[in-house]
Amino acid sequence: MKGLSVDLLLSELGSHDATSNHTRLMRDLLVDEGADVRIVVQFVTSDEPVTLLKDWKATANLTVLQHAIGSDIADRAIRERIPVVVNYHNVTPPELVEAWDADLISGLRWGRSQLDQLAPVARGGLAVSEFNARDMRSAGFGDVHVAPVLWTLPAAAEREHRLAPTNGGTVLFVGRVAPNKCHHDLIAAMAALGSRRPEAELVLVGSMASRRYERALRRLASRLGIGERVRFTGAVSGGELASWYERADVFACLSAHEGFCVPIIEAMHHGLPVVAHRAAAVPETVGDAALLLGDKAPATIAAALHRVLSDAELRESLRSAGYARAANFAGPVSRRTNIRALAGFLEAGR
Fold first, then answer.
1. What is the CATH code for 170-327?
2. Superfamily of chain region 5-151+330-348
3. pLDDT per position as a tens digit, 108-142
4. Can you tell me the distance from the alpha carbon of 348 to that of 331, in angstroms, rounded to the nearest whole number?
5. What is the spatial distance between Cα 99 and Cα 31, in angstroms, rounded to a whole number?
6. Which residue intervals of the chain bear CATH 3.40.50.2000?
7. Cα–Cα distance between 266 and 277 in angstroms, integer?
8. Among candidates 146, 95, 130, 100, which has minimal Cα distance to 280?
């Protein structure tokens, strides 16, 4: 790619979301390959060097649009028929959030509509999971390659045997506080777990995508009598996030819709056993390295969490499987997969 130009398009370059982090790492990857790279955004939200959409001219050899929600930047690609490669991180189905916060759904409906409109314009598709690739093909994309989300973490703490959980255990989930992430199911499961582990704690790490939903969650925890055992941290730094992964005893994900779910891989990288709901891309992400459940009934989830927290042999088995699974998505592996896909689009476009 030496001497070639690449533009990476997204609405804004945020601080804590997987799409923004992926974009930064894709930039670094392409620069390492010798390309001249610009990140193009609608809104400036950081001090990093970016090009504003209003100043952008589509002259690059390759233009990659990061698509996860409706945006003016996607509209411009559609309107001007710019042959972008759509890097699809999935758009949350509006019906998953409407009952909790109807204000969130307009951008989701817009994003899903744009996916259909991008298909006849785009050079091709890059999906972060096979689950997402199926969504793209159903929208009319022909040439779709699967390449995982790019992610990076400092080396995990020394992988010594974790001690048995104390004070009932700490259950961790990492993700935006948004209805599709199903924090309400986690809170209900923690209430059910209380009969066996009355001191168990639930830690919810992530920025607030919906204040309305957050308020509903706090009311739910209070009504179920576990308000003091549910902690909302809000957005945290990378160091704080790593600390929570190291301090927790089990990672639980009951999300109804994930296009990949980077926090699951991060948890495995840090040696946390994972309990997850069988939905969307989660089974594809976890492989055989998690306790995967098809039933989200509070009693079922509570029983699974109690089993993991009580059974040292099971914890060690999940921990070992998780390390191996996370290695499948380690930086060098994902970098090679992404660069092969992008190089293929460049070659096809010549």
1. 3.40.50.2000
2. Glycogen Phosphorylase B; (3.40.50.2000)
3. 999 999 999 999 999 999 999 999 999 999 999 99
4. 26
5. 44
6. 5-151+330-348, 170-327
7. 17
8. 130
Name the 3-class secondary structure at 137: helix
* Burial (0-12, 13-18, 19+ Cβ within 10 Å), 160: exposed
Q: How many CB atoms lie under 10 A from the CB of residue 223?
A: 11
C-alpha closest to that of 329 among 18, 15, 13: 18
What pLDDT band is residue 315 in, cutting at 50, 70 and 90?
A: very high
**Tens digits of residue pLDDT in 171-188:** 999 999 999 999 999 999
Q: Which tokens sit at 100?
A: 């909790």
pLDDT category at 84 given cuts 50, 70, 90 is very high
Closest CA to 275 of 302, 260, 253: 253
Q: Which residues are within 8 A (CB) of 252 and not within 5 positions of it... i.e. 6 or more apart? A: 171, 172, 173, 186, 189, 274, 275, 276, 301, 305
SS3 call for 105 = helix
Q: List helix spans (H) across 70-167.
A: 72-79, 95-98, 105-118, 130-139
Question: What is the percent of the chain where pLDDT is above 70?
Answer: 96
